[in-house]
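name: query_chain
kind: protein
chains: 1
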Amino acid sequence: MKTTFTKTILRTLVLAGCMLLTVLPQAQAQCCASQRKVPFAIDWQMNAPLSTDFADKISGWGMNLEGAYDVTPNFSVGAFVSFHTNHRYVGRQTLHLSPTESLTTDQQRSAFQVPFGIAGAYTFCNGSHVRPYVGVKLGTMFARNTTYFGTGGLYDKSWGFYASPEIGLKIYPNREKNWGFHVAAYYSYATNRTETLTGDIDGQGNVGFRLGILF
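structure:
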């Protein structure tokens, strides 16, 4: 089961990564320009699930990768891929699975998410060292919710539509402004539907923040 899961995640990340690679020729063409038109961001991500108690603990097990093209000095479009895992431990209890079946066990729950797609942002105070922006990400999300109990486990996976508005800051500490820091806060919602040991999850909302570098 773990081998199949690993292969699925690798295929998903490779597919999403290919979307970012489509902007590399443009990046090479702009590498010598005085004003970088193809910025990239690598972020550490903190995430807290909403609207579900399956795996509701805030977690720092996440990352966001993003590449964009500056269509105008203020507006940019690009591609992104991120992933995150949230966990929750549930103590030993008796679960009534059906009128004739019950299970007494503790649970280790894991919620894994991989959204990817297109991203757009509008940046204010262009040319300054600190640039606030508003943005939105749209795409699809792969989700896998797993419950481990005893010596076994149960999981379900699905695909859904993904949308995520965000606000943030781009901070350039040097005079050339060719690298810097990225800080963002976001909300996301995906339409994924999965079945778990104790019930169904219909839709997944999250809030969180990102901290990373720009180059």
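note: Residues 4 and 40 are 31 Å apart (CA to CA).
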